[in-house]
């Protein structure tokens, strides 16, 4: 018995109530939650201002404070996201397979909720309501443990959501916000076998490593994105340049931004100089291999560590390769299994790239920035899995359920007596 | 760097070679593996006799020695199983979803292998070749760590399989048998992040707990089966009795055997006496609640612990319940999420039972003994998952793969400049 145990037991008990809700009740609940967030705007922004003040006083980084800060338009976006999740197709009850066995048994696979999903994240209150909504819409109870810097914001958000839940007859424990900000509390959470069915950690490497090291319940890692663009010998240069600029510069701090460009040697001499000029104009520092620097001496030298680094910044590593197989081998060695892109006009090269890699998302002639649940048609995402278990790549509502077996017969036995 | 590390690195490298094999090559490999097992019959049986002798000298239980023992007909069954796995549909490359996005992107979800699957099990050499075949057929490398008592048997089996693999150009490391029989070795195995993609432990509670406690790579538990039969008020008594006898007596030591029967009070008085007589005639001891004993005083008193126990023996716990909701609550409290059966002629009761429970397999009017990958149409199974992550219930070839995303475009970017 630990300090968290009573809270987790309550969440576990509440999971049955959420699982029993039909689609219409869940939609109504989520719309009410969205409305409650809108109604609580002042309280949420006041709590958030308190968190932002404290973070500023504590001299946290500008990036952390930016992720922490809410404002009316960001809150509007959260409200819209919750309303949108309310209208997504309900995965629960979906029959994914039906088969009649020779002995007359009807075998079906049917989606059910996972149970209790715990999300462990950092100082990003923008995530709180969306993650809760996705878990509830998929029929799960949810346990949220956000970063300490966002505690007051998260508490104000949870209070608003709880109001809507209680009005709809859903126990508040179905959305349990953990207020204990010590790291030891994470250990208790990820060791709560029988109470937590899945843990999704989202955050920096330190958090992910801590969770992985201590977990005794299943974990889906939302790890780093070291995304590659490989420009093949016969790529359309204008198209490749568009993918490069979009992938590297439109939002460098997110996981589906490009970190490394691999250039086929036959296209490097014509493509690289132009690309460097465009990138520099957009404030991107290019770090190149020796062959890149022979083509364009102004490029800074890349260190070995630059390949495989998630810069999350306006920095791009560039390497010239002999052929597509060298590109594939480079990605296998340095990649993070997140998202890789090939620019090519050669259909066979595209297939070779796809089959040679086992990354979660492999793209042909489009931007890595589409590696996102919303863009790929999931409607919303709770994370992007980089481990090849349960879900791989962007995770939507279905990834918060599991297929189980329903078997109907009329007296079949295995060994008739 | 640990003692196991070089072996696991070799398995990890070999995974790419297995993943690159097309269906025909994999089928040919598996048929050759089956033939190699048949050809090595004498060597395998000699090695097995050495293991059986040692286990007998060490005074291991008769049950362990029975699981350990191979003979010509058991080996024939293994050979047949491997040949059958060779002909199963190949899940790798299966396109499970195709969607055209409004911006013209074609989004597909396509199955790929997991990578390296490790199986940790006890002294059951019957499992070795089948598990290896399933993993390879799904495009994975496999690391096997069987019980120490079966080491010579497993080495002889692996040697035969390696012969076939090398003849087909597949690196031997794609099937790595760990010969280190110390438990510490299991710890190294389940902490090999980046080298092992999934661990499947099969065995007693002690093994499962050890793996869960130490694992840093994903684990799918093949845990106990405390299977329930609920006989509803208006069940067909003859049908319910058939399910009871089949579920309890045809193979009591397996996980899909029945352990507990719940009887609606309205049928208990007529059903129980007859059931007890039949069960006793088949050597089954019945342990009943107070209400059962009031109906049939000869029944032994059940202790609280009997409910929720996986007897794996000719013992049945019986409880009389007021209604279906009490039956569902009992299973929620005492069950292991494996397999539950309702006998009823009431379609609404069947639906209530299905929706009230989240066990991996829920059955209406058929025997729990069908809770098996082969019986449910998977062709073969590598285990039965009792955790609601990745796979739930019997796991076949598909559960040894994962869906990833393939996205094709013609220059789409997220923010056109």
Write the element-wise H/E pattern of chain A from the N-terminal end onward. Answer: HHHHHEEEHEHEHEHEHEHEHEEHEHEEEE
> How widely separated are the two ends of chain A?
49 Å
Q: What is the count of helical runs of chain A?
A: 14
Q: How large is the radius of gyration of chain A?
A: 24 Å
The proportion of residues forming helix of chain A, as a percent range, comes to: 40-55%
Mind explaining what this structure looks like?
The structure is a homodimer of 417-residue chains. By secondary structure, chain A is an alpha/beta fold. Chain A has two domains: 5-220 and 390-406, 3-Layer(aba) Sandwich (Aldehyde Dehydrogenase, Chain A, domain 1); 227-370, 3-Layer(aba) Sandwich (Aldehyde Dehydrogenase, Chain A, domain 2), CATH 3.40.309. Chain A has 14 helices and 16 strands. Chain A has helices at 5-19, 23-39, 41-57, 62-68, 72-86, 125-137, 151-167, 183-190, 205-214, 237-249, 265-281, 290-295, 324-334, 347-356; strands spanning 95-100, 106-113, 116-120, 141-145, 175-177, 198-201, 227-231, 258-264, 285-288, 300-301, 315-321, 339-343, 361-366, 383-389, 391-395, 401-412. A seven-stranded parallel β-sheet of chain A has the order 10-9-11-8-7-12-13, with helices on both faces. In chain A, strand 4 (141-145), helix 7 and strand 5 form a beta-alpha-beta unit. In chain A, helix 3 (41-57) packs antiparallel against helix 7. Chain A starts with a helix and ends in a 5-residue tail after the last strand. The mean pLDDT of chain A is 96. Strand 13 of chain A pairs parallel with strand 16 of chain B.
């Amino acid at each position: 018995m630990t300090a968290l145990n009573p809270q987790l037991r309550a969440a576990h008990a509440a999971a049955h109530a959420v699982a029993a809700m039909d689609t219409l009740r869940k939609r109504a609940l989520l719309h009410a939650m969205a409305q409650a967030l809108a109604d609580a705007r002042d309280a949420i922004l006041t709590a958030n201002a308190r968190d932002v003040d404290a973070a500023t006083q504590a001299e946290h980084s500008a990036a952390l404070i930016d992720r922490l800060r809410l404002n009316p338009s960001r809150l509007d976006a959260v409200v819209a996201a919750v309303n949108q999740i309310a209208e997504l197709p309900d995965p629960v009850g979906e029959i994914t397979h039906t088969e009649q066995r020779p002995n007359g048994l009807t075998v079906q696979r049917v989606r059910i909720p996972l149970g209790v999903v715990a999300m462990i994240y950092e100082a990003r209150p923008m995530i709180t309501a969306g993650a809760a909504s996705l878990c509830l819409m998929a029929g799960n109870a949810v346990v949220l443990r956000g970063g300490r810097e966002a505690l007051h914001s998260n508490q104000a958000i949870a209070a608003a959501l709880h109001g809507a839940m209680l009005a709809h007859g859903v126990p508040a424990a179905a959305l349990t916000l953990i207020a204990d900000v010590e790291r030891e509390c994470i250990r208790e959470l990820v060791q709560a076998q029988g109470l937590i069915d899945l843990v999704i950690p989202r955050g920096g490497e330190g958090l992910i490593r801590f969770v992985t090291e201590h977990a005794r319940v299943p974990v889906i890692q939302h790890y780093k994105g070291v995304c590659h663009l490989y420009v093949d010998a016969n790529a359309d240069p204008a198209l490749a340049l568009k993918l490069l600029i979009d992938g590297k510069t439109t939002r460098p701090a997110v996981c589906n931004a490009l970190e490394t460009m691999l250039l086929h040697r036959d296209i490097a001499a014509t493509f690289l100089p132009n690309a460097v000029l465009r990138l520099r104009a957009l404030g991107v520092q290019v770090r190149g291999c020796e062959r890149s620097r022979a083509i364009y001496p102004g490029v800074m030298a890349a260190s070995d560590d630059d390949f495989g680094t998630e810069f999350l910044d306006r920095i791009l590593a560039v390497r010239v390769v002999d052929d597509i197989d060298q590109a594939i081998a480079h990605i296998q060695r340095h990649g993070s299994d997140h998202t890789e892109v090939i620019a090519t006009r050669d259909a066979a090269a595209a297939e070779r790239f796809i089959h040679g890699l086992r990354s979660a998302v492999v793209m042909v002639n489009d931007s890595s920035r589409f590696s996102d649940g919303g863009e790929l048609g999931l409607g919303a995402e709770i994370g992007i899995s980089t481990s090849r278990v349960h879900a791989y790549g962007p995770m939507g509502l279905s990834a918060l359920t599991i297929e189980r077996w329903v078997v109907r017969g009329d007296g079949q036995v295995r060994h008739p007596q």
